[in-house]
Amino acid sequence: MLIIKRTALAFASLLLLCHGALAATSQKWSEQEANAWYQKRPFLVGSNYIPATAINELETWQADTFDPQRIDLELGWAESLGMNTMRVFLHDLLWKQDPEGFKRRLETFLRICDKHNIKPMLVLFDSCWDPNPALGKQHAPRPGVHNSGWLQSPGARALANPAEYPRLDAYVKGVVGAFARDSRILAWDVWNEPDNTNNGSYAKLEPKNKIELVLALLPQAFAWAREAGPQQPLTSGVWKGDWSSTEQMGVMERTQIYLSDVISFHNYDAPQEFQRRIKWLARYNRPILCTEYMARGNKSTFEGVLPVAKQYSVAAINWGLVAGKSQTYLPWDSWEHPYTDREPAIWFHEVFRTDGTPYRAEETELIKRITGKVKAGGVSAHVKALRFRRDR
């Protein structure tokens, strides 16, 4: 009897998921529409972006800490490399707190992006890091720890409480609807790493049925976004597992791909693995965007990955632009062994130091050549100035 009940429950859950997925794909772009959109884009290169003055999404966007001057400065550094996109995380609590103010700050941000010829991808939900977000003043970074203040959206309590879902619905439709026809926005990333259970950091604080909850809510989130009528594509990036065939993929990965207008993925491995995953995803005949890569200590580097991305016309968005309060220049293992008494032998993420100096000048020169900011074989004015001072 118990087995029968469990089987019936699983079947009912599958029916609910299928119903939600069908509703969410009622306006999904065709392959032709997705590829026509992508053909109009330049080779997309950028970073996952948070200003150096913010520890997380709330500190980025709340009125007291929103820092347009710093954002303008840092996006100017990105523009100097020829970067033309940024992936930027929003948060549902910002809509709950002050929807009109949040929209005004988003408008300010988009004006800054447009000034620097950058079209951002905006992320609506995120399953990574702290599952207990709270509005107001955010805590200081934990010394020596990678991404010690990043927040999930929705938090664990909202995720586990269906009474919160109308609020999440209003957030998605409100934000997407406000900018649905805004050509300054590249795309909407509906949910970042939806089945990440944060082993090694916050796993003990996660709902035990988190993956089941997210799997049921993800199609609804896509449906809410589509109901807002965006002219930009929707996506959710696959990030783990074997994607070599549909049979090898997990139910979450299959759902993400099924719902997405354009295909996106994360990969922090060596170039050979990066290339292999591109080939796996090519069978969907849709544009492919890598929305996270570049972990130097894990052999994912600009010099290794960017040429492969350009060869296959795959967008390349690395993690981290400027070192700051997120401290993601520190490696993942800092959660077990904080870097309080030493610097890492090599920075994990980030392109620039807090003052705008490149962490590695050879990397920024490579990015410029890949984006066409400088011609192959040429050097930028910045490097010429350094050589002039050295040679005097």
Question: Could you explain how this protein is built, in words?
Answer:
With 392 residues, the protein is of the alpha/beta class. It has 14 helices and eight strands. The chain has helices at residues 2-24, 31-39, 57-61, 68-80, 92-97, 99-115, 156-159, 165-178, 210-227, 251-259, 271-281, 302-311, 361-371, 381-391; strands spanning 45-48, 85-89, 121-126, 187-192, 234-235, 263-266, 288-292, 315-319. The protein has an eight-stranded parallel sheet, covered by helices on one side. Helix 4 (68-80) packs parallel to helix 6 (99-115). The N and C termini lie far apart (86 Å). Residues 1-13 and 385-392 have low confidence and may be disordered.
- Number of beta strands: 8
How many helices? 14
Average pLDDT, all residues: 92
Relative helix content:
40-55%
Give helix and strand order, one letter per element, not per position.
Answer: HHEHHEHHEHHEHEHEHEHEHH
- Gyration radius (Cα, Å) is 21 Å
Computed structural class: alpha/beta
Q: Spans of 5+ residues with little confidence (pLDDT < 50)?
A: 1-13, 385-392
Strand sequence of the main sheet, in spatial order?
5-4-3-2-1-8-7-6
Distance between the termini: 86 Å
Describe the main β-sheet briefly.
8 strands, parallel
Shape: globular
Beta-sheet strand percentage? 5-15%
Structure at a glance:
With 392 residues, this protein is an alpha/beta fold.
